[in-house]
Amino acid sequence: MGALLALASAVSYGLSDFLGGVLSRRASFIRVALLGQVGGLLSMGLLAPLFSGTVPAVADLGWGALSGIGTGLGMMFLFRGMSRGAMSVVVPVSAVGGVALPVLVGVVVLGERPALLAWAGIALALPALWAVSRGKAGDGQSAHAVVDGLISGGGIALQYLALAQAAPESAAWPVVAGRVTSILTIAALGATLHLSATRHANDGQRRCGLDLGAAFAGALAGLALLCYLLATRTALLTVAVVLSSLYPVIPALLGITVLRERLTPRQTVGLVAALAAPVLIATA
Questions:
Q1: pLDDT tens figures, 246-266
Q2: From CA 145, how far away is CA 81, in angstroms rounded?
Q3: CB-side exposure of 170: number of CA atoms within 13 Å?
Q4: Rounded Cα gap, residues 51 and 173, in angstroms
Q5: What 3-state class would DSSP assign to 247?
Q6: If we measure between CA atoms, which residue out of 222, 269, 232 comes closest to residue 92?
Q7: pTM of the model
Q8: Total domain count, the chain
Q9: b or e along 212-229 (b: 16 or more beta carbons within 10 Å of the residue's beta carbon)?
Q10: Fewer CB within 10 Å, N- or C-terminus of the chain?
Q11: DSSP 45-88
């Protein structure tokens, strides 16, 4: 059952990223990210009482709130990267950072000693990131999209690191708290940095279909995180982490097959390495 939940998490995350990336090319990525978190808050607010009706500790809600800041950063820059670059590149780059950075924090801050496979995955990630960032000559957008993916990976790493500190008995309530702070984070950065001023002219039309799609993508992401948490409690942690870390495969393959994204041979090799790196790190 735990393995199925982890796979469900990977599928939900992958479809959420793909849908969010498509919508970010048709509307402001800030609006897509913001409405996605609203959708996640609504869905998790309905599901959380089913797993625990007790009020969690303030500290657990605090860790959830901190994780939401990472979620807001991660989703905002992930969608911006996909709005101006190939999602088959941006999502794996984000995933590498989201998995590798917690390992490095564990080593430097917590004194942990990862297995050899984890170090192999980190070593593989570095040339992979270099390869996928090397688009066609003069393609500055590709490099900017990779930077967005790296920033997104940092946000996702913060999300996982903070959420892992919440006690298991708090159930899904830290995730709910995280959706609240993710909304505030995206709204604040969008207003302060004027990041919503993009090339998407049709954002002002406020098309209902795009808004509903963004909210649905956020609900899928919330469901993915819930499935992951449940998987870690019903299966070996290694199994849950490895299977759920397969999520970049979905948007990468859909980007190439459905959206007809074209990668250079060097980027293709980097993509394969970037997909393999999180799995190696998680396996260890």
A1: 788 888 888 888 988 887 787
A2: 4
A3: 21
A4: 9
A5: coil
A6: 269
A7: 0.82
A8: 1
A9: ebbbbbbbbbbbbbbbbb
A10: N
A11: HHHHHHH--SPPPHHHHHHHHHHHHHHHHHHHHHHHHHHHS-HH
